[in-house]
Design goal:
Layout: H1 6-22, H2 25-51, H3 56-66, H4 68-77, H5 82-85, H6 89-93, H7 99-126, H8 132-149, H9 153-176, H10 180-197, H11 202-216, H12 219-227, H13 237-268
Helix pairs in contact: 1-13, 2-3, 2-4, 2-7, 2-11, 3-10, 4-10, 7-11, 8-11, 8-12, 9-10, 9-13, 11-13
């Protein structure tokens, strides 16, 4: 069979997790920056595809089909993604890594992902790529940021849980596949579904909302968004960090570490007494 079984995946992830935690901080951070950029570029492609068609539902579906390219780059090109690394709870529960080692990895990778998302957002906005389709790209970017920044804490938390449940399932499936084609096909559908459903991914939002904030600062983009009825006041660093990123990050940890990592550890690795 050209697949690892779920039990084999769980055992294989222990070694992978130990390698992640033992990596030098400098390398960990640089790989995290790359992951943030990969996810951001996936977001750029998704938005570009979505605004290239006039029918909103078709555009959303196209965007959802493009976005998985970001996680494909993360997993196959080699990088460190915070949301996927919530699965480090598996080697932690097996006592193969320490709590401090896991938390250090999460903190360094989170900061690196944020840096990568900011770099991608700045590059897209200040290169005026957001001016595509008569500034409709910029309107979409600012509108998406406004929508994310006006979620209630509870909504953002639950959408974060659902999102990283699917993301970690995608990572799990990619670990099950033994060839590149299998890894890509395996991760595609869970990622496509989370985007299509509008769930919240903390690292993706590091790009999406930052891009919206940067675009809001360009007068021609802000004017186009205002004329389209976007609430510009909702798009700010304070709203981003407090209203969206905090609950979404907590939700992502619950969805990945608890709903996937702890469950699969309990089923496949926990020693029956």
């Amino acid at each position: 069979m050209n697949l690892f079984t779920p039990a084999e995946v769980a055992k294989n992830y222990i070694a992978a997790g130990k390698a992640k935690v033992c990596m030098p901080v400098s390398k960990m951070f640089l790989l995290a920056v790359l992951a943030g950029m990969f996810i951001g570029i996936g977001g750029v492609g998704a938005t570009t595809a979505a605004v290239s068609v006039t029918q909103a539902s078709v555009g959303k579906f196209l965007g959802a089909c493009i976005f998985p390219g970001g996680l494909t780059m993360v997993l196959l090109a080699g990088s460190e993604l915070f949301t996927g690394n919530t699965l480090l709870v598996i080697p932690l529960l097996e006592k193969e890594i320490s709590p401090s080692g896991m938390l250090k990895n999460w903190a360094v990778v989170y900061m690196g992902n944020f840096a990568g998302g900011l770099l991608t957002a700045a590059g897209i906005v200040y290169s005026h790529q957001a001016g595509l389709f008569g500034n409709q790209m910029a309107v979409s970017v600012i509108s998406a940021a406004a929508g994310k920044c006006t979620l209630t804490f509870g909504d953002a938390l639950i959408r974060g849980i659902l999102c990283n449940f699917l993301v970690c399932i995608a990572v799990w499936i990619s670990f099950a596949a033994k060839d590149v084609a299998g890894k890509i096909m395996g991760l595609f559908f869970p990622i496509m579904m989370f985007v299509l459903c509008g769930f919240e991914h903390s690292v993706a939002n590091m790009y999406y909302i930052s891009a919206g904030i940067f675009a809001k600062g360009i007068p021609v983009y802000a004017k186009a968004a205002a004329e389209a009825g976007v609430d510009l006041a909702a798009v700010s660093w304070g709203s981003f960090l407090g209203t969206n990123l905090l609950p979404v990050t907590i939700g992502n940890i619950i969805g990945g570490a608890v709903c996937v990592g702890c469950v699969y550890w309990f089923v496949y690795l926990r020693k029956d007494s």
